[in-house]
Amino acid sequence: MATEIEMTPVPKTPSKPRTKAKSKSKSMPSRAISHRRALLVFLLPFSVLFTLFYIVPIGYAIYQSLLTVEREGTFGPAVQVFGGLTQYISVFQNEAFWASIGRVLMFGAVQVPVMLGVALILALLLDSPLVRGTKFFRLAFFAPYAVPSVIAAIMWGFLYSPNLSPFTAITENFDFLSPTTVLWSIANVVTWVYVGYNMLIIYSALLSIPQEIYEAARIDGANQFRIAWSIKIPLVVPALVLTGIFSIIGTLQLLAEPQVFQSFSSAVTSTFTPNLTIYTTASIPNMSLAAAMSVVLALATFALSFTVLKLTQRRTTQ
Amino acid sequence: MTTTGSARPAGIARRSSKNRPARNGGIRESAVSRTVAMSVMVVATLYFLTPMWWLFVASTKTRSDFTTTAPLWFADFALFDNIAALISYRDGVFLRWLANSALYAGLGALLATLFAAMAGYAIAKYTFRGRETLFNVVLGGVLVPATALALPLFLLFSQAGATNTIWAVLLPSLVSPFGVYLSRIYAAASVPDEIIEAARIDGAGEVRTFFTVATRLMAPALVTIFLFQFVAIWNNFFLPLIMLRDERLFPVTLGLYVWNTQVSQIPDIRALVIIGSLLSVIPLIVTFLALQRFWQSGLANGGLK
Amino acid sequence: MAISRVARVGAIAAISALALTACATGDTDAPAASGECAPSDGAVNLTFTSWLPGVEEAVAIWNEENPDVQVEVQTGPNGNGGTYQNFFNQLAAGNAPDLGQIEFDAMPNFRVQDGLENIAACEGILAAEDQFVPWTWSQVTFGEEEAVYAIPQDTGPMAMFYRTDLFEEAGIAIPTTWEEYEAAAVQIRELGGYINNFSQSDINAFAGLVWQAEGQWFSNGADGWTVDLTGAESTQVAEYWQGMIDNDLVAVYPPWTDEWNAAYNSSELWTWVSAVWGANTIASGAPDTAGNWGVAPMPQWEAGASAAGNWGGSTTAVLKGSAHPYEAAQFALWLNTDADALTAMNRTANIYPATIEGANLPVFAEGVEFYGNQKIYEVFAEAGNNVNPNFTWGPTMTQVYNDVADGFSGAVSGNGTLLDALTAGQDKTLAALKAASIPVKE
Fold this sequence. Notes:
The structure holds 3 protein chains of 3 kinds. Chain A has 13 helices and 2 strands; from the N terminus they run αββαααααααααααα. By secondary structure, chain A is mainly alpha-helical. Chain A has a single domain, classed as MetI-like fold (Orthogonal Bundle), CATH 1.10.3720.10. Chain A has a two-stranded antiparallel ribbon with strand order 1-2. In chain A, helix 3 crosses helix 7, helix 3 (95-127) runs antiparallel to helix 10 (237-252) and helix 5 packs across helix 11. Chain C contains 16 helices and 12 strands. Chain C has helices at 2-24, 55-65, 83-93, 107-112, 134-141, 164-170, 178-190, 203-212, 232-246, 258-265, 278-285, 325-337, 339-349, 376-385, 397-412, 418-435, and strands spanning 44-49, 69-74, 99-103, 150-152, 154-155, 158-163, 218-221, 224-227, 271-275, 293-296, 314-318, 352-353. In chain C, the strands form 4 sheets. In chain C, strands 2-1-3-11-4 form a 5-stranded mixed beta sheet. A 3-stranded antiparallel beta sheet of chain C has the order 9-6-10. Chain C has a two-stranded antiparallel ribbon with strand order 5-12. The model of chain C is unreliable at 23-30 (pLDDT under 50). Chain B binds chain C through residues 63-64, 66-68, 128-131, 133-134, 137, 150-152, 154-156, 158-159, 163-164, 241-242, 244-247, 257-258, 261-269, and chain C through 1-3, 5-6, 9, 16, 19-20, 23-24, 28, 47, 49, 51-53, 74-78, 81-82, 85-86, 89-90, 92-95, 97, 256, 258, 261-262, 265, 277, 280-281, 283-285, 287-288, 349-351.
């Protein structure tokens, strides 16, 4: 994806003094050193913070997943001991957990392509001269992402309600919150929230396409659909892959929307999605089992993302 | 290609909406295409904005009108009464929460964008050993659900004696793995190597090149990352929930979440939650509007100096 | 250099992770030795986490009268909304507050997790038993000798809220037994209304009904816990309500939603079997029905009996590791027995005190306008006296509620019965206890 810049030294032109020239040793090219110093500046802040707030906690969570608890007597104090893979065995025997993974996979297989397809179409339309009032539409599509989940609960509870919805004509006759339909009602809310978000990513990618690429198409007399299909879409494939991977990750980690739906739909159980199962397990409290579930979920997510990445890479290089 | 920076032949207009027609060279799109396109936009707008409209209308209603009047139109207009009730509740703690959110989200997103952009740019534009490893480790960090990280993060900050402080909320918000991903892609796509080479030849240091050249070329992307991180921090109540105990440090969404759990004891607080949610969405909209102008690649034009 | 960066990052990670685990078990403030409870020297600052709305007002009274023992209130969502999880995190980190609000049904959980200080040795605590309603005291002592783990704060004695005007118009007698209740339900259904709404998610309310029937879901002895969600009384209650659901005699709206409120407001629902704090819920959620409600004792299983259940209620507990258990215990006792404090908390949070004297507070002596000026608190005071003092909660009630609620949700949509849900909940509870190594009596 990125172009390679070789760190080879370039001879100094005497008339232009370098700004950051400081040789550490005679054998080390000064350009390479300033590159290294720059890389340090670029990478260090993020890396340190990432290590502190992601790597370290993940390490701790993995450590915790290897522990079990022993206690004596009805009210005896608990002692945490090394349990090896006990928790993991428990996770693999947990039917509810695997049912929830199946559920989100089914969810993702439908919702992610639909959402990204809509986001792509809207981004292309916004970027084309066919549409006026771009600024307004950008805001309109983005606005749902700004809504906090607390209010989403009240809002969607209302909208889906058989009696109180503005659309009672529909909601009275079709139960959006029954065990068979609630998963897709949640899919609708997730799509509603994230289409604008993904659209902006794709749109920003479209904005960075240099003008002159369109010149050739202009000369050929291509219309907007042609331009979109042959030029724009191929150039935003990296952005699409990015949004795709992160949507898959987000789908497997679905938590906020099911929790929101729990408050007004009885069809959303406490083990509806894997992340919800983890949350429920952590509140027993059984932190070690929850940690093991998290690790298993992370590995499953990794496997899925990796597969999708490999598939798309093969597609784009063919 | 010239070496002084502008990769675009002079004379191509900036891609702003005013100059739209020039982009496709004056080919007039058919009225049919345009109508179809606009209808799609309108339908999409209705889909996205109807629930928001509901929120606005609901905020203008009194408690008794809330469930008994038509949901999509106003009843007795009580918006300003509701706002007054919200602001005066508990000595104006809501305003304090808005200020807290502005601090956490504003400062947090700013620094997060900076750090992510630098890291993404470095990964995109330089080769170094371990580059892909680093990139994949960053992705790996996102794979573990945040619920698993709650206790370790809490222990970490307890070690530093920093729980229940603004640092507990601010510092973890400075990490945006997604931002690194985005900026890598945008840096690769919109910062041509020739420009960097040119800057090097002109004697600018790497870091200076980044700040003067690359950020301008990546502007739409940086703005996108900033906006997303801003909204993510603003709406995140999970991290503040586990870290904060002092009500005066709460961000707005945590405050509203806490109020919502008190509905069984103070049923009238539901109305405050609704009007509070409307007010908490407004700063996000304002931020979005303020950043709109960066979504024009025209800023990418203009050369280096 | 880049490898060294990756390596450096990895090294920081490894060292920090080790440091985290090593320090996770460390304490910050040195806790008092158990078994003693001596006053501290000098000025004391206590931290108290409570989600009771407006509790700072009551605390302010204490702070003014006790300049040497200042209490700082910290707040958050309700227990199951995140504060209990925070308590566990804080106990693990060693920086838990001195005092915490813990509901009765969460007490065994905190006890099993060793999160509570035994304050029996503190001055005046053991002697305070006489001030409290008996069942509350047994739930904070777990029946142990010389042990008190929290001070009861408030209770939720249950009764039946009903629409006086609708019953009168229809000529239906106020039901006094569950049999009469079902018969009335049939009549009300014919008139187009529902007698009640069955809540598939308020499992603690269902537990209150089982409590009224003298059922026991949990008991504990020296050799472990006994779990019995499907005992005779529990089955009786489950089958009763299942019958009501099957015959469409109760509505099944998800509770605590606008839709549920609207059902009361539009007179679709005629009664609510609920706790004392429900008075405020109805008043606020169904304002159009003001003046048309009354309160009667819960329907009984046997004619002429007067048993009642309880729904809700919290305690104020001294959390493990507190450096000042003596002062904390004194404050907890004061907060929950002092007339001014109780009145303030009732005003801001609508709580009903757990003390016997609390029922006689002036604020409870008057008629309530929304309820046709009936002195409703007399009914609740009577109910409070009739709550079985021997009901025991299990050590993982959050998990029990989640698992049973999952099954109840299926039952109200036609998948399985309430009894099936309790059976499944029983199995899952046993599994959860075993997974946490909590001894179960076989």
